[in-house]
Design a protein that fits this description.
The structure holds 2 protein chains of 2 kinds. By secondary structure, chain A is α/β, with parallel strands linked by helices. Helix content of chain A is about 25%, strand content about 30%. In chain A, a hairpin with a 5-residue loop joins strand 5 and strand 6 (about 105). The longest helix of chain A is centred in the first third of the chain and has 14 residues, at about 15-25. Chain B is built from 10 helices and 11 strands. The chains are: A alpha/beta, B alpha/beta.
Chain lengths: ~210, ~250
């Protein structure tokens, strides 16, 4: 079993690597590598797409890495390998991103990425800190997780869903902020599971054990 | 609902915690990694490392420290001290920092924040503002540990740095830092009202009521403290229980 964390020069991969390595050890899930090699991505059993920064820059970086984008898309769309997008990696799963400019997303879930605009003017943007999850639908990644568990968010844009179908969990920030999306073999988390203590580590372990 | 964060801050010099951290059962009071692990277990919401003697020569020590902390801690880590360029930000993020804090370099040239935010996103760019009262309702930016006045108005500067792309402000009152008399609440309120990004209140915490005041009166999104936690006067859990009792939403672990 091989889990590949895709390195397209976006963000902090060291923390994610360490968290996935630890949970892979605890769940006998095999090896976790950070890689920018399209061949490794193509043969990995599971993929993790992290991401920090702006939607268009992340999409451009991903597409600009030789063969990486195609290998990832084939692995998910054709081979149906389990996939987890984190933060902007989750946002890229949407149809469309509206940060700075309109950018096509991967189109894997029915959502559009827009600026967070809390109805309450006292609420700040970015949405930074620990917020409590409301689980919308059952999913194997929620084994041992319940509504009210906290995870760590840090983002200014969020995914607004076209329908409730692909939303697995949300948090309240005077408007609903999508926390977890899912469809077929794909999952996306807006928060950072690698920075969300026990709750985050548990979801990482659940992802590594997941056989959709 | 988003919770108010409690952030212990460790002053670090040459890879060691300045003055130490005196928890019961901590193996090495001066080891920042041990202290970070203890705070993670104690329910801290984030951690902050400030390299107080940051020089070019000892950057490697800080990277190594951040790397080892990220291997053992599963809460966010902000690192500041001696951060001057977007390249410094990248190096710290790669080592495992989640957010990087600019201070004097942003005063000298606020455009460095825009450069860093464009590359890495506003969400990981913090601007530390050290302000001192110069008249009633007037605060000025000071650099070099509060020794050097700049003539820059703190509220105006807060607006400038957020417009450039800072995603959070770490606001320290130089009048209050180390006094244990509580945050400078009018300053905290003025900055918090002036910007739309989260403000972390810092400087002067001596009691748990001070933490409550920083949020309810100062409008802070997070509270940072050092000595009350390091010397065991209060635990993070006690601080959270106190804030919770005062009606502030906190993450109880």
């Amino acid at each position: 079993m091989l889990t590949a964390i895709i390195d397209y020069e976006s963000g902090n991969l060291h923390s994610a690597h360490k968290a996935f390595e630890r949970m892979a050890r605890e769940t006998d899930a095999g090896e976790v590598v950070v890689t920018a090699d399209a061949d490794v991505v193509a043969r990995a059993d599971r993929l993790v797409l992290p991401g920090d920064g702006a939607f268009p820059a992340c999409m451009a970086a991903l597409k600009g890495s030789s063969g990486l984008f195609d290998a990832m898309v084939e692995s998910v769309e054709v081979k149906a390998r389990p996939f987890l997008g984190i933060c902007v990696g989750m946002q890229l799963m949407a149809r469309l991103g509206l940060e700075y400019t309109e950018t096509q997303g991967l189109g894997w879930v029915d959502g559009t990425v827009r600026k967070i605009t809390p109805a309450d003017p006292a609420l700040k943007v970015p949405h930074v800190g620990w917020n409590d999850l409301v689980l919308d639908q059952p999913h194997p990644v929620f084994d041992g997780i319940k509504t009210g568990d906290h995870t760590y968010f840090v983002h200014s844009y969020h995914m607004v869903m076209d329908t409730a179908t692909h939303r697995l969990a949300h948090v309240d920030y005077s408007e609903d902020v999508t926390a977890i999306v899912g469809c077929d073999t794909m999952l996306g988390m807006q928060f950072h599971p690698e920075k969300s203590q026990g709750t985050g580590l548990r979801m990482i372990a659940n992802f590594l054990r997941w056989t959709p | 609902m988003l919770k108010t964060r409690i952030i212990p801050c460790l002053d670090v010099a040459e890879g060691r915690v300045v003055k130490g951290v005196n928890f019961v059962g901590l193996r090495d009071a001066g080891n920042p990694v041990d202290a970070a692990i203890a705070y993670d277990a104690a329910g801290a919401d984030e951690l902050c490392f400030l390299d107080i003697h940051a020089t070019h020569e000892n950057r490697g020590t800080m990277f190594d420290l951040v790397r080892r902390t990220a291997e053992h801690c599963y809460i966010p880590l902000t690192v500041g001290g001696g951060v001057r360029t977007a390249a410094d930000v990248r190096a710290l993020l790669l080592a495992g920092a989640d957010k990087v804090s600019f201070n004097s370099a942003a005063v000298a040239n606020p455009d460095v924040l825009a450069e860093a935010a464009d590359q890495f996103g506003s969400q990981c760019i913090v601007c530390a503002i050290d302000a001192k009262t110069v008249a009633a309702g007037k605060w000025e930016i000071f650099t070099h540990g509060g020794r050097k006045p700049t003539g820059i108005d703190a509220v105006e500067f807060a607006r400038t740095v957020t417009a450039k792309g800072a995603g959070e402000i770490l606001l320290t009152s130089m009048d209050r830092d180390g006094t244990k008399q509580g945050f400078n609440l009018p300053l905290t309120r003025a900055i918090s009202d002036a910007v739309n990004v989260p403000v972390i209140a810092s400087g002067g915490v001596g009691t748990l009521d001070h933490l409550v005041d920083g949020v309810t009166k100062g409008g802070a999104s997070a509270v940072l403290a050092a000595s009350i936690f390091h010397f065991g006067e209060f635990s993070v859990a006690e601080a959270k229980a106190h804030m919770h009792a005062a009606g502030i939403p906190v993450r109880l672990t």
